[in-house]
Design goal:
This protein is about 25% helix and about 40% strand. With about 130 residues, it is α+β, with helices and mostly antiparallel strands. It has one domain. GO terms for molecular function: structural constituent of chitin-based larval cuticle.
């Protein structure tokens, strides 16, 4: 496996992990323990670009796309953009949009502050196809 592919894969894992942490830090509907994935789509192309999206039964949605930029050059990097949304504990919809590129991670929208919330194990298992 090439160094560039390993680096691209690591960037992708870090971005996805950060976004999942951000998503799970937000509040969800009270019935989140029963949430299921109701739609999921994912593509990954040989050039390193990818897209994915999902929606859960408790109203959480997420989508993201990424592409490798300046391939083979010293400033090769990945550009990622995406969004997620959920309903907070007050019943208000929350949407967050983000980008990650050579300028770092930038978020538009409210930054989740309810850090005591997390994904239930069955939701994580559902995301992993188990």
């Amino acid at each position: 496996m090439s160094v560039k592919l390993v680096r691209f894969t690591m960037y992708r894992i870090v971005v996805v992990a950060f976004a999942l942490v951000s998503l799970t830090a937000g509040a969800a509907l009270p019935d989140e323990s029963q949430a299921r994935i109701i739609s999921y789509d994912s593509t990954s192309d040989p050039d390193g670009s990818y897209n994915f999206s999902y929606e859960t039964s408790n109203g959480i949605t997420r989508s993201e796309s990424g592409r490798l930029v300046n391939v083979g050059q010293e400033d090769e990097h990945i550009e990622v953009s995406g969004s997620y949304s959920y309903t907070d504990t007050d019943g208000k919809p929350v949407s967050v949009f983000y980008t990650a590129d050579e300028n770092g991670f930038q978020i538009q929208g409210p930054v989740p502050v309810n850090r005591d919330r997390y994904f239930q194990p069955n939701v994580v298992a559902s995301l992993l196809g188990k």
